[in-house]
Amino acid sequence: MATERMEMNGIGERESEEVSAPRRRRNLGGQLNMNHYANKKSAAESMLDVALLMANASQLKAVLGQGPDFTFYYPLITLISISLSLQIIVGILLIFIVKWNLNDESMHNKLNIMENVATALVFGIVVVNIFITAFGVQNPNSKS
C-alpha cells in the first residue's frame, strides 16, 4: 500500500512499501520553505511571550494586592508595566513578521530590521524581568 509523505515545503510525495524506513526519514533534496520555518519560529516565540505575559499579569496582581505600603510597590508597578508594554510591542512585531512573505526579496531588509528590533526588545524584557525578580514579588497572603 502506498503512503504519502509531506515535505517541509508542503509538496507531497508518494512512496511504495518497498522503500526502506531510513530512506523515508531523510530529506530527499526537498527545499526548505522559509515562510513555513519563520511562521513556526514566530509561533513558538509568541507562545513564550504569552506565558511571560501571564506571569507578569500575575505578578502585577500580587503587587497590587500588597498595596502602597509594600517597600518596592512603585518600582515593581513601573517595571511590570514596562515589561507588559514591551511584550505587547514584540507581539505586534511578530504578527507583522509572520504576515510578510520571506520569499519576496524586496522585504528581506524590512524583515531583518523587524527581527533585530524584536530580538532587542526581548532582551530588554529579560533584563526588566530580572529586576522584577530581584525586587521580589510576594504573595499578599504572606504578609508578616
TrEMBL record:
Cellular component, GO, one term: membrane
Keywords of this entry: Cell adhesion, Membrane, Transmembrane, Transmembrane helix
Taxonomy, superkingdom: Eukaryota
Membrane topology: Multi-pass membrane protein
Region (Disordered) residue spans: 1-25
Family assignment from sequence similarity: Belongs to the ninjurin family.
PANTHER family, A to Z: NINJURIN-1, NINJURIN-RELATED
Listed name of the protein: Ninjurin-1
Organism from which the protein derives: Esox lucius (Northern pike)
Lineage, top ranks: Eukaryota, Metazoa, Chordata, Craniata, Vertebrata
